[in-house]
From TrEMBL:
Binding site for substrate: L176, S202, I223, G224, G225, S226
Residue ranges of every copy of the Amidase domain listed in the record: 72-530
This enzyme's EC code(s): 3.5.1.4
Keyword Hydrolase: yes
Annotated keywords: Hydrolase
Domain of life: Eukaryota
Organism, scientific name: Emericellopsis cladophorae
Protein name listed in UniProt: amidase
Family under the similarity heading: Belongs to the amidase family.
Active-site feature positions: K127 (charge relay system), S202 (charge relay system), S226 (acyl-ester intermediate)
First-tier enzyme category under EC: hydrolase
Substrates-to-products reaction catalysed: a monocarboxylic acid amide + H2O = a monocarboxylate + NH4(+)
Amino acid sequence: MIWEDTAGAEKARLEASIPQEWRVTIPQDVKSTLSLPQDTNVLTEAELRITNASATELVKQLGAGQLTSVAVTTAFCKRAALAHQAVNCLHDFFPDAALARAKELDQYLAEHGKPVGPLHGLPISLKDQLRVKGRQTHMGYTAWINKVDQDSSVMVDLLERAGAVFYTKTSVPQSLMVCETINNVNGRTVNPRNKDWSCGGSSGGEGAIVGFRGAVLGIGTDIGGSIRVPAAFNFLYGLRPSHGRLPYAKMANSMEGQETIHSVVGPLGHTVADLRLFVGSVLSQQPWAYDPKVIPMPWRQSEEEAAKAKIASGQLTLGYYECDGNVLPHPPIVRGVKTVVNALQGAGHNVLPWEPYEHPYAVDLANKVYASDGGADVYGVLKESGEPAIPNFQDLINPSLPKLDLNEVWDAQLKKWHYQMAYLKAMEAFEKKHGRELDAIIAPITPTAAVRHNQFKYYGYATAINVLDFTSVTVPVTFADKGLDKVNDTFSPLTKMDEAVQAEYDPEAYHGAPVAVQIIGRRLTEEKTLAIAEEIGRLLGNEVAS
């Protein structure tokens, strides 16, 4: 069987998993599909209210028996079916199994009078790297279709123990190493706000389905922006935790065994409170007992409370930068950074310029690491089926790029360590100069608002933070505005990449595209960084108080 037949059969299987009564016709000229749930009669009014609620609200009602898991799961299965028809965001859809699990959870609550765990009855969407026993994880590779997983990922097991319900696995780009989402099996996933814009990647299916509210919480991974970029492009919050905070064991991946820059797993959602619920629920299951790479560090309530006390007293000290020295962001992103700075200063906090310490060096180092096997892993999988490589990652992963030998890998690891130490020294110098602790840094996460298809070129705003292994939270800020975000007539390119990125800017094409920033904290400061992100969202009017 040729690869096209295998891919075609898999796509047909997925489409057939959507019940006939949940199918709709979407006119080709419709660009935004966000109103589709309200404009069709697939969901009832009660189901619309459920899917518009936060995860934090839902688990309270589920745990108290005010909502059944069957009702909540049905609502999200319906909305996920609409999401897929609108934006092509799924790799797998299993509503029957989800509803069977939901029924079991409802019976448990009725018999025992208490929930199974902190996520009792809550549907959660999974990026197609997380394995679910008895289902496949093809991850956009034709060669991996029909390979059934014999075990679940540790994260899946722990979430299930906490009471979660699984019903979807979402789309990723071939190789994962792209901040857009397209593969030869399922095609392209688009942005629910405008089908001409990317949903981001590699957790693009998660960004799209959560943005559409076909999921209230989604799980992504991040080795070079793959949680933060989809969150940014879909006006969501996303957490890139530091390596070792959450369990990655038994997840599928490209380039497994590459340990110089770690991929990490984390949530995407509509509120920081929901991200906190997710992290706290996973940590309550003691993941370090099942994944030896996880640090034995429960949720530190004292760290969260200390951060909130500092916020309440108006004593935060934050750095910010608009440009990393490689690529100047488009005007909407620059305005987004300034909007956050102004909001914090207006609340009495200290917000001071931060000079990004040798970020171009970190970006070059990251690119060498990503290409360190000369593309052998990715191209080896493609060779198994004969399918072609998508063109989107050819500049990052390519057999023509130099392959690192063992000593060169060791050297890259040493350079990373030295760079991390030098960055801490730069932060120490900032604190000595200003006589204050640097609580976090405000920065772009991408140089563009939600980008047009095949136009994501520069990963550096994300990858420098992966090299540092700092905690980072995406915060939605505003939307591109053609009336405010004019072309920069005084622009002079810093680099060839800068010239290419700036040439893509069109105020008309990007009007209305989501704009976000990332809040960067030190390594393993998830409690503090989330609290700061939540306060910024509150000041902007984009966050619900917990």
